[in-house]
Amino acid sequence: MVVHHLVLPAGPVEELPAKLLQQLVFEDWAEYAGEHPLIAMLRSAGHEDMRDRVRQQVCDGYLGVLQELAEGNDDADLRTELFAAWLLGIGILRTAVGTPTLAKATAEDIAPHLAAVGEALFGRPIPIPVPETD
Q1: What residues contact 62, with CB distance under 8 A and at least 6 apart?
Q2: C-alpha closest to that of 118 among 34, 7, 17
């Protein structure tokens, strides 16, 4: 499997949780069978070299930026990894496993839960953008 550099969504760190939800869970990545590249890479994580690359990209990328939201908490590292695991788990259950409820859930369905989990873990409100309508 070709390893691609994971690109974080642009914008203020406060917007990152909602953007990651969109990117990890709802964006269609046709070149990866519809899954986010990170989820596709995890399928090959049984190989030590791939696992090391995934860990490096996750820790240096997603977790490094998300940790800014947990600053001021004694267990900021744990809170950050719990939030990332929650988001990644949603992506895996929706795309790789295809659980029925998550597979049909929309971003609007999950957004209030994202806000609640984010606020519980980071200790601050997580802004959830209002979906654009045409």
Answers
A1: 6, 8, 20, 84
A2: 17
